[in-house]
Structures are given as C-alpha cells and as structure tokens.
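Progress report, Aim 2. The chain analyzed during this reporting quarter is listed below.
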Amino acid sequence: MSGNEIRKKFLEFAVRNGHAIIPSSGLVPENDPTTLFTGSGMQPLVPYLLGEEHPKGKRLANSQKCFRAEDIEEVGDNRHTTFFEMLGNWSLGDYFKEEQLQWYYEFLVDELGIDPNKLYVTAFVGDEESDIPKDTESVKIWQKLFASRGISNDVAEIGSEDNGYTRGIKEGERIFYYDAKKNWWSRAGTPIDMPVGEIGGPDSEVFYDFGTPHDKKWGEHCHPNCDCGRFMEIGNSVFMEYVKTDSGFEKLPAQNVDFGGGLERVAAALHDDSDMFNVDLLHNIIKKIEELSGKEYASDKESFRIIADHIRGAVFMIADGVLPGSSDQNYFVRRLLRRAVRYSDKLGVQEDKFAEIGERVIETFGLYYTNLHEKREIINEALCAEEMTFRKTLDKGLKEFEKISQNGVSGHDAFVLFTTYGFPYELTEELANEKGLTLDKSEFETEMKAHQDKSRAGAEQKFKGGLADHSDKVVQYHTVTHLLLSGLRKHLGEHVHQAGSNITGERLRFDFTHNEKMTDDEKHKVEKFVNDALEAGGVVSTDVMSKEAAQEDKTIEASFWDRYPDEVKVYTITNSQGDVISRELCGGPHVTNLSEIKGKFVLRKEESSAAGVRRIKGELTE
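Predicted structure tokens for the chain:
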C-alpha cells in the first residue's frame, strides 16, 4: 500500500466516522507568531481547541504538512525527517477516549492490516504534585481492545524514561504508564510548567515493535520509549480535559481530542521496515537520486536520505511562498538546499540536477497537494538559482580554507567557515584530513552551541506572544490588521493581499504583496484610514458561508484560499453610517465593536520583507 493510499484510507475512514475533512494549513503558520513553522496538525486548530466554533463542526480530520527545523541535523538516520505529513483527527467537545482509541486501533488493524501483536501503547501515570489522576480510563479501554483479539494486555507502571531502561519489559506487558514528560500534552510542557489559563491533558501513544535487537548504548533494557530503534511511535491521542487555574487544575467544560500520526511512520509500520526512507513517498525521490548519481541507496544511505529529505522539504516550502533567503523561514530553505549540495557532491550528482529531483517530489505528492503543480515553475527556478548561488559561495569558501589551512585548522576556523560560507563541519573536517590536519571538534561544538543559544533566545524574543493566547490586546491588534489591509488596498491598489502577520500584545507586524516602497504620503493616508475607522467606530460581524460562495463574492478579500475548509468565516466591519469598510476571510479572534480597540494606530516602519512583499510594523498608542 502506497503512502498516498494510506492517506486516502485514513481520510475515508474518518469520514465514515462522521468527520469533516479540512485542508492542510500552510507550512508558515497564519496568525501564530509563536513559531516559525507548522510542526503539527494541532497547531492551526488551537483557536478551536480553546473554544472557538469551527465552520465544519465538531469532528474534523486532515493530513497536515509539517516542518520541524530542529531536526535538520538529525536527518541521515532511518527515521528523522524535517518535512513530514501528520494524519490527524479532532473532537471539539464531541467524542472522547472510548471512541478515539477504538477507532485508531481499528484503523491500524482492520483497515491497514497491521499485526496487533506488534502494537504497544502508553498512558499517563498521573501527577500527584498537580493533583491530576492516573489515566486509568485509557488503560481499561486498551485492555479491552487487546483482549478482544486474544492478545496479552498486562499493564506496567514505568514512570520515568530512565526507569524504563532499568526495568525493561516483562512477559505479557502491553500497556505502559509513563510520567508527564512522555504522556502529557500542553503548549507549555508538563503540568508544573503550565501558566494559569493554559489547557492540556494526558495522552496515549501507540508504538510499533520492529523487533530489532536492543542497542545498550541507550540503556540496559528496551522499553516503548527507548531510542534504540526497536519501537517507533505511530500515533498519539491527546485528551485535552484540563485547564490550569490559580487554585490548581479544573476539568474543561468541553473535552477535546487531538490525534496525530506521522504518515511515513504508519507506512513504515505497515511494511514492517524500520527504515522510513523505504516508504515510497521518500523512496521515489531516492530512486531518482540513484539514477542521477549512478550509485545505489545502500552504498551511502546517509547522503541519499539527506538529499531526499532536504529537497522534498524545500519544494514544499517554496510552494508555500518561502524562497531561499537569509532571514526567518527563508534561511531554513537555504540551509536545506546548501546541505543537499554538499551531499549530492559526495554522491557525484552533476550540477543543475536539483530541479529534476524536485520534479520527482511534485510527481509523488502533487495529486493531493495540487499547489505543487501550480508552483512548478517557481520551484524549479528557486532550486536552480540557490544551487548555483551556493556553488559560487562554495568556491569562495574553498579559497578561504586554503588560506586558513596554511597555519592549521581550528574548531573556531570551522565555525567561521560554517557561519560565513555555509560549510558543514563534515566538509571542513574532510578537507583538513586530506591535508593531514586534525580538527578540535569540541571547540567547534562549543562555539556552535553559543551561536545556537543566542539565535534561539533571539527567536524566542522575536516570536514571543501571538494570537494563540487570545489576550485582549492581541485580539485588538488582529482586528486592526483588517483595517490596515483595507487601507492598503484603497491607497495602493487591489493587487495588495496579505502575505503573513506576526502579532503580539505590544505591536503588529503585517506583510503584504506590493513591489514598491511606500511613499511618506501613502503611509500617512493608510495610517489615517485606520485611525478614522477607529475614531468613527463600527461593528464587527461574522457570517459562515461556503468557500465557493465566498470566492464568487468579489467584495470579500482573502489570501491563502487553499488553506481554508469548504465552509469559511467572513468578518465584516461596518462603520456607524452603515458602510462596509472591511470584508475578509479569517480564522482568528476579533473584537465585536471597534470601540473595544484602545489607542491610536501608529505606522512605525515600512520595509522590504521578500521579493514582491513589503512589511509594516505598527502599534497602538494611548
């Protein structure tokens, strides 16, 4: 069964169980500046998990494209990827544990035909300090499900991951209790880390046992959460039933289910092959690299995996409008492609072949992600241009290396070559070895860690806050962006559309499509448009309609049409004279009346964000 067939089967199974299928959101989160990328299927649905009504109802499902930048350096083994798909289903105050666990078990065993004897599950052991009980309900459900197939269903209380390595698995054990580090979910981590007002809950994970020998470098004994490779998590059901208050934890009025399962991981389990890169979604790309390099996958699996993953990730990013660059998300596309150049050279792939590999990605995924076909020309151009640009940088870096190496090569030199010329450490090490020189890797790693910590701290500061917290000021700023977009379209032209936003409780950042720098007069007019609207006051109303009807209604402004479900929310701002001053598709929270917005809007800065995209930074002042 192919990856495309597994995705189709999952979505059809969800529909049979009353779910509405919603489209995948983009890889760059809309209205969520807390993170650079969409890293889970849950992320775009946070407003609805917090209580906002979804236009498609209480049962939802999709396959969400995801990107996890933090895994770039891990790619090369048999299971890490930067880009992946997350099969997901959600209950917004509808069904709960009984239905969720049974459905997923049925999907794995009956729909896909996975051997139930190879499945192991985990549950939350409880948290005495936070007075949250053990999740005995999920365990009882699992015991019943395993017993119905005549499979052992003994329960083990593991607790910590370290204890798992000490204790291991006893005969007959199938269900394992772990602590909050493994079986609790909230955006802020474990219960003790959660701020007041944050929601969370226990989760239950399903693991597949490949039966591979245990590697004792991880610990004495194997257990489901062991990192040796024997077990792979293929699904996680989160039961969001708690909210943290000043006095502790309380049950939410509506209990939600948030399920996610990696498509490639499910496929690997179905084929009983622990190498995720043998799943056709990735192996189709690897076969193209074999053809271009004249080498077999088995000869250098690490290089094949890195190229396949990185070009796939870059193709999806570019299709979502993220071009290679030096800042924010653009930097990660550049990093993916430059790393792919390094490993394609290692395999002997000729120059200017990235577009051919990208074409294989489009062929493999384009039936479901149709925007890959629509953006084919842009994807090909970006892949070729970045490869060519880096090869020029590579030449400069090689010349710099020759100068440096006259006096030996230090870890600091390797760090400079990496940060200035994009040289991976392995390349500097290889070049040094050819000259009979040795590198101090610990010095390089120390400088890299300091660099990463600084970058991470900057990113955390830069992306602090966001719409996900639904604070009053954030909601005010979000509503102001609607007025801002209307002002831009009035004074710059109807070619202007939203290209992204980043909103905190202190300011807004708004990206829009426009090729030229705004004049001072244009900035003044747009700022005045927003403030005139705020001063006059007005009502913000909501309509739910079909996406088809919304697209036909030319008075409705929208970007990212492909990210919205079949039914959409349209927010209309009408002034006190009854005139419509903004009508726009959106999925976030808004004020109900402009009088709720406190302060005067000040347009602080207008600058370039990317090719054809401008950025406004502004704030509300008292």
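The CA atoms of residues 63 and 87 lie 4 Å apart. Residues 3-277 form a domain with the BirA Bifunctional Protein; domain 2 fold (CATH 3.30.930.10). These observations will guide the mutagenesis work planned for the next reporting period.
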